[in-house]
Design brief:
Globin-like, 7 helices, globular, binds protoporphyrin IX containing FE
């Protein structure tokens, strides 16, 4: 049964990443990014299988259930590539806080205004990213590395919520689709 948090507004702002955390994120990401296609697809398939309501935004696979079928779907693979490339740009710019802020603002605006994605799914996806990376890259994602990633993803979720509030996001009425 799909369980998700109802409320992610008013998350606390995480403290800025330390230099050590930044280096741990960049080093671990470079290893993950060598396998970006498989890693990205594994993360998104896990999201859509474990949290089926997150498929509602994707016309091509919102009714698909089988992981093998989801894995082959072009729209899923395209979004997986976009997620991995956006995270790569974010990770490469961690020393430039203005750039990080503008990347996250752009991401939040597009998902709030164009795709109308409920911000709760950023929190859910963050958990899935940590889970899958920990399983697939256990030597890379040590507890300290996982803690640094947890902080980065919490920052992403916090900034999504700030942007969603700024653009006046309101939850659309529940769909039966
Ligand atoms: C780390 C989190 C995420 C990143 C980096 C990301 C990145 C992107 C990018 C770069 C695009 C294409 C450019 C654009 O339209 O802005 C996109 C499109 C989209 N995203 Fe995300 N996304 C994330 C999370 C999510 C989540 C959690 C959902 C919904 C559950 C979602 C749903 C969509 C949809 C529906 C589109 C349009 C897809 C299409 O046109 O085929 N995204 N995303």
């Amino acid at each position: 049964m799909e369980k998700m948090q109802e409320e992610v507004a008013h998350l606390e702002q995480p403290t800025p990443l330390t230099d050590k955390e930044t280096v741990m994120i960049q080093d671990s990401w470079s290893k993950v990014f060598e396998h970006r296609d498989e890693a990205g697809v594994a993360i998104l398939v896990r999201l859509f299988v474990n949290f089926p309501s997150s498929k509602q935004y994707f016309s091509q696979f919102k009714h698909m259930e089988e992981p093998e079928e989801l894995q082959k779907c072009a729209q899923l693979r395209t979004h997986a590539g976009r997620v991995m490339n956006s995270l790569n740009t974010l990770v490469q710019n961690l020393h430039n806080s203005d750039k990080v802020a503008s990347l996250l603002k752009q991401l939040g605006k597009a998902h709030a205004l164009r795709h109308k994605v409920d911000p709760v799914y950023f929190k859910i996806l963050s958990g899935v990213i940590l889970e899958v990376l920990g399983e697939v890259f256990p030597e890379v994602v040590t507890p300290d590395v996982a803690a640094a990633w947890t902080k980065l993803l919490a920052t992403l979720c916090y900034e999504m919520n700030v942007t969603y509030e700024e653009v006046g996001w309101t939850k659309p009425p529940a769909s039966t689709g």
